[in-house]
Amino acid sequence: MRSASEPTTGQGTTIDPREAEHFGRMAADWWDPKGSSAMLHKLNPVRLGYIRDQIDRHWGADETDRRPLTGKRAADVGCGAGLLAEPLARLGADVTGVDAAPENIAAARLHAEGQGLVIDYRVGGVETLAGPYDLVTSLEVIEHVLDPRDFVQGLAGAMAEDGLLILSTPNRTSSSRLLMITLAEGLGRIPKGTHDWQKFLTPEELCALLRDAGLEVVDCTGLAFTLTGGFSLSDNKSLDYLVTAKRRG
Length: 249
Hints:
Layout: H1 17-24, H2 38-59, E1 73-77, H3 85-90, E2 94-99, H4 102-115, E3 120-123, E4 133-139, H5 148-157, E5 159-170, H6 174-185, H7 203-212, E6 215-226, E7 230-234, E8 240-247
Parallel strand pairs: 1-2, 1-4, 2-3, 4-5
Antiparallel strand pairs: 5-8, 6-7, 6-8
């Protein structure tokens, strides 16, 4: 449920202008936990816990360190209004956030200023970044781009040699179609038209794209949902999942 994040001009773009327009319309209430991005607010704590664990594992960080990314550069591709970019900045990273929708970047800049955070927000995509970046994230974005293969290649190209890439995306299963489109969009929990089930990627498909980009997949974990417990990390990848990759060494 994030906007595509390749630039709106230039050759080889993977952006779908309709997707950028759709998510740009949501910019005004992106930070409202009861607004159109309510589902992302519910997802965020679980995803942040996963990202922190992967950071600690990859760089051998102390889990009690409140700023384990100090001295590191991070890029959030498809950053929306900054729901992930801001926590990464609080973890100590020098953060760049890019998004295709100018409305999202405007909202992100305004919110970061109010929080006293310095984040380099840009309208555009991977090729606008002056890498390399130690950490590259792109959550709920790849299912909205025109060419997932080119998108993954761009993410990999922005990574430092010892870099880490973390993505999340819905799986293309009957469960995801029922819960995310039939129910969530049908009941108005997610804005109607947010997802195209045919563009969802299975873990096998996404991992193959990562390997083709010269990366090694180090983890693939599901994001499960229950009415009583909400979202949680799980071995069950039938709804949504997170993937971590590093350079093949």
